[in-house]
Amino acid sequence: MTINKKQEAQKRLREEKFKREHKLIDDIDHKICNKHHIFFPEEDPWLIATEEYFYHNDKNQSDFLHPCCKRCAIIKSRINQIENEERAKKTKLDWYKDHKELNWKRANEWKEKDHEYALQCYNDWLKTENGKISSKSSYEKRKSKEHQIYDIEWDNLKKYFDNKCCYCGLPIEEHWIRYRVRFY
According to the model, what pLDDT value does residue 129 have? Predict the structure, then answer.
């Protein structure tokens, strides 16, 4: 058989499979779930052929959807986990060990590099003339800054945040006890 004939035969098989698994209902493409009759015998096995109801599957060249719906796939997976409990535990532990170690390494490397780089940049900037002037002036600006807000605006803000701190969510009384900061 030549390559073209093989490709044509594969194409014909995909089209036949598509015709068996799909049908138009009210001009909407529906797909049959191949496990629905087992897990949900009272329901109609024809579901809308979208990724809302079926998982995406690159290996299925006819429609790129998994042969069973998401609900059935979850039940099937859970049954498989229960039947093969030891294997499922081992797989989870192996995955967790590999990823935990890998994520720890990545996080620590990132923290060290990022922290060192940020400190270096900040210290370099402080040594420049602009850094020296800016750091002093920004501190003085923050120290002497006054907010002008009308009573109506302040009342509206308190109502909007339900008399709680907009940052931490504590009520005003608890915020005062914990942080010794008055907002009124």
Answer: 72
